[in-house]
Write a structure and sequence with these properties.
Elements: H1 3-6, H2 13-21, E1 63-67, H3 75-88, E2 91-96, H4 100-103, H5 111-127, E3 130-135, H6 163-180, E4 184-187, H7 191-197, H8 199-219, E5 224-226, E6 228-230, H9 231-234, E7 259-263, H10 284-287, E8 292-297, H11 313-330, E9 334-337, H12 368-378
Parallel strand pairs: 1-2, 1-9, 2-3, 3-4, 4-5, 6-7, 7-8, 8-9
Helix pairs in contact: 6-8, 7-8, 11-12
């Protein structure tokens, strides 16, 4: 099978499911979620009360995070994702496509956007979680070669070349900075994939990024701002084979506070965790002298259809153990595992490669790797 066929599905495809899901979460949908955290009293916010384990073990410097991706398409499950992060992590990733129409010239913030902001900021305040907010304008299902969810009035071929789209991107970045004051903010996700597949879009995006960077800093000076890069594609091992593109980092010179990497080795060349090169993550320090975060990662715990990877729970545990050990030793400041629980709605289509990416099953039962994560989460932070 040709390599271009083997890697047709992008590593970020599951984000598309989240972007479709997110708007529905605030429409009052119902349902019950399994494995709720232990509650000891009425919560001081919209989420359940959580109790963290007593701190024990050797101090760690790396912080841990989960994304807000829930296992089920319910508002309760979405809230539970924040509670899980509060109990077993230090940070949470919210990754979302801009609601373009709200922020186009003449637009106004919709009730849906306002309601999601109120809920999420209340949950963040309740749990004291560090927020990584990723504005994700491109479509992962088509390997980030076009913008996602543009309104019908916008020519999809124009994308970022349309000045109204760039204006909306900057305005949305300002809105997030003002209302969330996030610790970290990604203005674009896996941008090197756009560079490879739609270079004109990438050049137009850079113009919007530069303006958005300054606007975010003006509204939230302490927020660390950056794009994210997809490691397997950056190395040329995902999709079309090409030379490494580390030079792309220079395109953000002076306007990139952190090197943020998404990495899914099981969608690259690795057939197992043991196949991952020794320098796979240590090489990042050769290309960036400052703070480094793993902005999203994961590893399948079961075989992935159509892939050379044969995932197992033991393999997932081996990858997680190596990742956390190395990240802590190398001085990376944050590691975000993309899904705490398997997303049950990712069983078919482009997102099915991520159906077993959680450290727990969708019903809340633990996989082998969960004990490793739980032990790391219980370790005290050396520099909280």
């Amino acid at each position: 099978m040709a390599i271009t066929d083997r890697f047709r599905t992008p590593a970020a495809a599951i984000v598309a499911a989240l972007c479709v899901l997110a708007p529905a979460l605030f429409a009052g949908c119902g349902g019950k979620d399994a494995a709720a955290p232990t509650a000891t009293e009425s919560p001081a916010g919209p989420g359940p009360t959580v109790v963290r384990a007593e701190r024990s073990g050797e101090p760690r410097t790396v912080r841990l995070g989960f994304s807000s991706l829930p296992p089920e398409r319910t508002s309760e499950s979405y809230i539970q994702a924040f509670a899980t992060a509060a109990q077993y992590a230090d940070a949470i990733l919210v990754q979302r496509t801009p609601p373009w129409e709200d922020f186009m010239p003449g637009g106004e913030v919709s009730k849906q956007t306002a309601d999601s902001t109120r809920l999420e900021t209340a949950l963040l305040k309740q749990y004291g979680l560090e927020l990584v907010y990723a504005i994700d304008p491109t479509d992962g299902v088509v390997q980030r070669s076009r913008l996602a969810n543009l309104p019908p009035s916008v020519d999809p071929q124009a994308g970022f070349k349309d000045p109204n789209v760039r204006e909306a991107f900057v305005a949305y970045a300002a809105y997030i900075a003002k209302n969330y004051q996030p610790a970290y903010m990604a203005l674009g996700v896996e941008v090197n994939m756009t560079y490879e597949r739609a270079p004109e879009q990438f050049e137009a995006y850079l113009q919007a990024y530069s303006e958005a960077y300054d606007v975010v800093k003006g509204n939230s000076p302490n927020t660390k701002v950056f794009p994210t890069f997809q490691l397997e594609d950056l190395e040329g091992a995902f999709g079309d084979v090409h030379a490494p593109r580390w030079n792309l980092l220079e395109r953000f010179h002076g306007r990139m506070d952190v090197l943020a990497i998404s990495t899914y080795p099981f969608l690259g060349e690795a057939k197992s965790a043991a196949d991952i090169r020794p320098d796979y993550y240590s090489q990042l320090k050769d290309h960036w002298p400052g703070e480094i975060i793993i902005s999203e990662t994961g590893y399948a715990s079961a075989p992935v259809e159509g892939r050379v990877t044969v995932g197992t729970e033991a393999d997932q545990q081996a990858y997680l153990t190596r990742l956390l050990d190395e990240s802590n030793r190398l001085g990376f400041s944050l590691v975000i595992w993309f899904a705490a629980l398997d997303p049950s709605f990712a069983s078919t289509g482009a997102t099915s490669v991520f159906k077993d990416i959680g450290l727990r099953k969708s019903d809340g039962s633990n996989k082998l790797a969960w004990a490793t994560w739980e032990a790391w989460a219980a370790r005290p932070l050396a520099n909280p």
